[in-house]
């Protein structure tokens, strides 16, 4: 009787191991290809917005994180690749936003200077009359 209990226990353990392996396979995440693509787009978008000039630190960090993500992906470290890709995308978005902010601030300063010149001209025209 003890032999049949031992056999039953071995079958039960093997079945449990099979179930655990099956569940682990189902629970794994897909490769972070979408995250890598998003990160690449964010870096390109930032570069297109002149982040090299207006947000060079953030853009350099984004490029560094993207390189780390690509390296991790090539090495099969998908979780590291996913984390680095998400960081690269966030930094790329930050560089894009800071660059657009700097451009907008420069445009506002230019408009204010134009307004000041126009006010001076109008003031001079009023004094002549």
From TrEMBL:
Keyword Signal: yes
Superkingdom field: Bacteria
Signal peptide: 1-27
Membrane-traversing stretches: none
Domain DUF4398: 34-110
Pfam families in the record: DUF4398
Listed InterPro entries: DUF4398 (IPR025511)
Protein name (record): DUF4398 domain-containing protein
